[in-house]
UniProtKB/TrEMBL annotation:
InterPro entries, A to Z: Elp3/MiaA/NifB-like_rSAM, Methylthiotransferase_CS, rSAM, rSAM_horseshoe, rSAM_sf, UPF0313, UPF0313_C, UPF0313_N
The protein's required cofactors: [4Fe-4S] cluster
Note on cofactor: Binds 1 [4Fe-4S] cluster. The cluster is coordinated with 3 cysteines and an exchangeable S-adenosyl-L-methionine.
Superkingdom, taxonomy of origin: Bacteria
Native organism: Methylobacterium longum
Matching Pfam families: DUF3362 (PF11842), Radical_SAM (PF04055), Radical_SAM_N (PF08497)
Name of the protein in its database record: YgiQ family radical SAM protein
Amino acid sequence: MELQAPAKHVLAALATKALPPGKAAPFLPMSRAEMAALGWDACDIVLVTGDAYVDHPSFGMAIIGRLLEAQGFRVGIIAQPDWQSAEPFKALGRPTLFFGVTGGNLDSMVNRYTADRRLRHDDAYTAGGEGGRRPDRSTIVYTQRCREAYKDVPIILGGIEASLRRIAHYDYWSDKVRRSILADAKADLLIYGNAERAVVEVANRLAAGEAPHELHSVRGVALFRRVPEHYTELPADDLDSTDEAAARRPGETVIRLPAYEQVKDDKEAYARASRVLHREANPGNARPLVQRHGDRDLWLNPPPIPLSSEEMDAVYDLPYARAPHPSYGDAKIPAWDMIKFSVTIMRGCFGGCTFCSITEHEGRVIQNRSEGSILREIEKIRDKTPGFTGVISDVGGPTANMYRMACKDPKIEAACRLPSCVFPDICPNLNTSHDDLIRLYRKVREVKGVKKVMVASGVRYDLAVRSPEYVKELVTHHVGGRLKIAPEHTERGPLDLMMKPGIGTYDRFKEMFDAAAKQAGKKYYLIPYFIAAHPGTNDEDMMNLALWLKKNDYRADQVQTFLPSPMATATTMYHTEINPLQGVRRGGSEPVDAIKGMRQRRLHKAFLRYHDPENWPLLREALRAMGRADLIGPRPDQLIPLSQPPGVGSGAGKAGGQPRPMRHPGAPRFTTKGVPLRK
């Protein structure tokens, strides 16, 4: 079995292959009555999701459903079913091909619990914002109920929860290493990453009579299978010294990761497996991976080939209703309200930030839509989305300003194993031109009926400083008073483990931003984001960050505490206290301090909210213990006062907050407020 690269623009051709014009369902059916109105006696595919059904390309189930519909399949959706019994999973009858199961746009545990493992009482992806409408580990629970409903129907897992839990992984909420979600859910197949091309192939092959276990040639799938006899197995003991002769035979080589039974008890083995997984993430040179789970081998094919612009256009041009399903009535779905006037222009991120899950899911190769497709979507928003006032709330993606950026040499790109194109420095092979993005901005502004186009996605400022013209264009036309930016920290130690640039780059961007705002006659502010309790951060680092914040007159209303999400490199650091960015060798690995105690995590959050009197008792105690009592007092160069104001308690502060946008694919764009003191 040799994996073949798919034919170019395959989705562009397939997306309109079987569906006659005008025959798309108004909404994919959620009831038997809707099926009957379409003339269906059964669904070929039933998608089960942990989110409310919004028929819009920002919601995974809508993309997959509409794409399969365009193939001629009858697709139904069961959204946020009551998981207490199998009956709700029978609502659309027995699917003739398969159940597709996803936890939703967010990992269900990230969705339901804070970084302090506290239960959230709201859910942005639920009608009315109501919490509790999905179970913990939704993908596993839904799969079990689908199996109870129709025992013989194949079950295919997909979405962010399945994607980031595709191998043995550390789970923060149970504080243990769990098996691949494919094993725990007992599903037939798992599709990870950008799944469009894979799900089209899987559906067509199942319709042709193949069984799920025969689909081992599809890129981006995981399944249980034996290693074929003609394969060469390479151990993951030390990828950096892997036999290069064998590495040049991707169709005949598989890398054996340490088994689940080993990584759950051996942190060094876990760190080694994580390092190998991330280095085998380039679709151009990645080899299959295999990991033993009990008496079976979990097989992971290389990641999917990135979608071309034609394929991206085909996906986003599908006939979405661009609204929540009518069954929700007038109920507000917060995630929908946040994105209904925004446009995704690209996918992927080559930043490689270790705390972020985007690269692990969407890949580091940027996948771009054409200008024409983007402009057509803006016209649809103008013409079809109720409440549009002429303001496009965002034109962006995982990062605002990586549109059409790519490696200058495809051969170098296909051979590269580096985890980031911009750390420790911007790669000389990376094309960092913002010209295409500037041209797009100008065309978007010219669309009739559009009054203002905002950029709300995070700007990668180390790229932006290379284009003064882009900064000027951004500030002059696309900022609405505040622009979010993510330096994450000021100290070199944690920044290196995050794979983020130094604070000096942020300072240069701020100078350019302020100059452009002054030239435009605007009073605009940068809102910097910072992370507390990231692996490799000590108390002194947080103290220095707090002093920087006070010196620059920043007050953060909400702060982000590091949350170890599945599969992220920083999660490996947290769990193993080993740095997998360096070689992992028995007894010779680089150690990393992990911030695990709740008191220290609260302290690090308190430093970010140094201005909150609730935090002052904790900070006074810590500063005295650190020998920095000189920072307690009334002077401007001191951090906190000597005493509490009347009536203010002595708690640990209110340093919590919602999960940050852009750190988890599909997350809603919650705004973190930060108001400069200086007017």
